[in-house]
Amino acid sequence: MSSEWDAVTVLRKKPQSANPQIVRTEAALNAARRNGAQIVTEKKSAGGYDAAKMGKVENETEDFSVPKVSLTVSKAIQQARAAKGLTQKDLATKINEKQTVVNEYEAGKAVNPNQQILGKMERVLGVRLRGQNIGAPLSGK
Questions:
Q1: DSSP assignment, residue 88?
Q2: Which of 76, 88, 82, 85 is nearest to 122 (CA)?
Q3: pTM as predicted
Q4: How many angstroms separate the Cα of 10 from the Cα of each of 13, 44, 105?
Q5: pLDDT tens string 78-114
Q6: Are 99 and 92 within 8 A, CB to CB?
Q7: What is the residue-wise DSSP string for 7-51?
Q8: Are 113 and 69 in contact (CB under 8 A)?
Q9: Which of 33, 44, 82, 90 has the fewest CB atoms within 10 Å around its CB?
Q10: Mapping DSSP to helix (H, G, I), strand (E, B) and coil, where does residue 68 land?
């Protein structure tokens, strides 16, 4: 045995680089295999474009419109509120909603009209806002 403890020889492979290399040729791929490099194959998509999905979207015929408050309902709300001498803020306070909600209903911009809100408005304003005869006075039961 050797009496020199300070002299040590260690044989190692070269450390792998932190950044993977992209190989585009078959010769470079074979050279990497011979060197024992780790090889990962990834299939790339062409910019995220999938022709099958795009064809389905183009052939779609369903209407995606969202129902809004009709013009007759918004006019009926405006007229009934003006007849009662209420502001939008007063009406909103009476139905426990924000003024912006009343404004959206009067402007016809409310998306998916809430039947509960329309019912509250009917009771406060005394005018039908749902079904037939929109704008007609509510009949007392």
A1: H
A2: 76
A3: 0.55
A4: 10, 41, 81
A5: 999 999 999 999 999 999 999 999 999 999 999 889 9
A6: yes
A7: ------PPPPPSSPPP--SHHHHHHHHHHT------PPPSTT--H
A8: yes
A9: 44
A10: strand
